[in-house]
Amino acid sequence: MDSVSSSAFLSTLSPKPSLLRHRPSSSRLLLRINSSVVENNGPPPSKPKKLYTTAVPSPAKLRPETNIVTALFTTVEDIINTFIDPPSRPSVDPKHVLSNNFAPVLDELPPTECDIIHGSLPPSLDGAYIRNGPNPQFLPRGPYHLFDGDGMLHAIRIRNGKATLCSRYVKTYKYNVENKNGAPLIPNVFSGFNGVPASLARGALTAFRVLAGQYNPVNGIGLANTSLAFFCNRLFALGESDLPYAVRLTDTGDIETIGRFDFGGKLAMSMTAHPKTDPQTGETFAFRYGPVPPFLTFFRFDPTGNKQRDVPVNSLTSPSLVHDFAITKRHAIFAEIQIVMRLVLEGGSPVGADNRKTPRLGVIPRYAGDDSEMKWFEVPGFNIIHAINAWDEDDGNTVVLIAPNVLSIEHAIERMDLVHSLVEKVKIDLVNGIVTRHPISARNLDFAVINPAFVGRRSRYVYAAIGDPMPKISGVVKLDVSKGDRDDCTVAARRMYGPGCYGGEPFFVARDPGDAEAEEDDGYVVTYVHDEEAGVSKFIVMDAKSPELEIVAAVRLPRRVPYGFHGLFVKESDISKL
User: Fold this and answer.
1) Keywords of this protein's UniProt record, alphabetized (predicted)?
2) Is 335 helix (H, G, I), strand (E, B) or coil?
3) 439, 382 in Cβ contact below 8 A?
4) Is there a binding annotation on residue 323?
5) 274 is in an annotated binding site
6) Taking each helix axis from N to C terminus, what angle separates 196-211 and 68-79, rounded to the nearest 10 degrees?
7) pLDDT tens digit string along 316-337?
8) For tag attachment on the chain, is the N or C end more exposed, with fewer CB atoms within 10 Å?
């Protein structure tokens, strides 16, 4: 069967349609700031049970009074937003960016019981699924890009077949200092420097804010809004413009931010939001990149959390957006793509496409002491933002990479709805320098994952989100990358979420993580799904081995969960270590 009808999905998801589709209340809250309307969907009709009784202030409603300095600078910023750099493009216009379920929720949510509306939660899901994403603390008064929001974690804690949802901001330095001042202080990286006049104006305003003591950039300006990672017995909220932020889940299912983490002073400036942990050795590999040399730095952590020495990659001679990478048992693979970083005085956005540049793949031994063994291979037309997996073949002389290739890369930042990502299998002959490429599926796929136990070694199955178009995700598909190079590798029928329903990145959870003999796809695929017509969000669990990714459980969430970025599942045994 090549597809599953939307009506079948809805009937499977909820035996009582009224639980999924209800007419939004007329009391829905609308906030208007600078003509930007942001919708706050209220809770569903049934009153949820609160497991956390302490009142939590709403960051969108209970603001401290701003002082004279903050009020003055905010007025200057309003002048910049109105006369020098108004949000003139759709990609930075809050009315466009924050439409539908991209709109932020205006409150944090303490641990709140959820209703299971279909099936039952499998025993192997004891733990928590946590997803990160942008949720601006303050409604934008000027240009705003999807990547610019403060990080908010949405965690569904599952124990003994029951579920609770909690949504909390990552309490970054930026969040805390802006919350204290009652206004945004730190400029948005992706939307705040559009051309020379805007860059000069906002640069000057930023300098005056720092000189006035409103904030200290040395303490970090990151959002921690991109992903999460569990390694070295710690859970981190990540954003590549800053250090990791350690977080923890309490016994009640609440989320607490422990703080910015520099691994004993050994980690400087920033770290990727996509570190890779070798499940067999326990080591974690990571990197940072930036606009000044060295443009790329590779490093790793041993299983106990000790950071090893930096390996500057000096052979990367210009600043490029390096969002993700891949590892094998012997190598690390980096992509130099056509999205570059520019000086703000050059005009335009600080991040944009350079079609004159030829994309390259760099392969370096993962235990390299320096970059002398880095090998670069030109791969015209191959631009990847995310990597799915990689492994070695031919006794380490060939590297295989699975990744979505972003077609029309010039639209990746400004017009994501025009982007089509084609998953490809790339083979790099390290001896002869020959690179071969084969498409795996013609569908528009990204935000793809594998069984985490197979990171860095040959894997067979991929679970990828279907763009409709990106950044909206209308379903998930399962791929078998072991098929012939010229075969379409789709295995399962597309699990579509239904009309007006969109989800997030899927995540694979093994049925029995301790069973070394278990089949690779023996487990579940989980994600959040939102029904835009009914205003209802759900957590769904799909059987990864079933021919149609059968839904085995659906949980109705006590309130809307906005669309976001990356997440992971943390086992109960790992939560207890935090």
Assistant:
1) Dioxygenase, Iron, Metal-binding, Oxidoreductase
2) strand
3) no
4) yes
5) yes
6) 180
7) 999 999 999 999 999 999 999 9
8) N
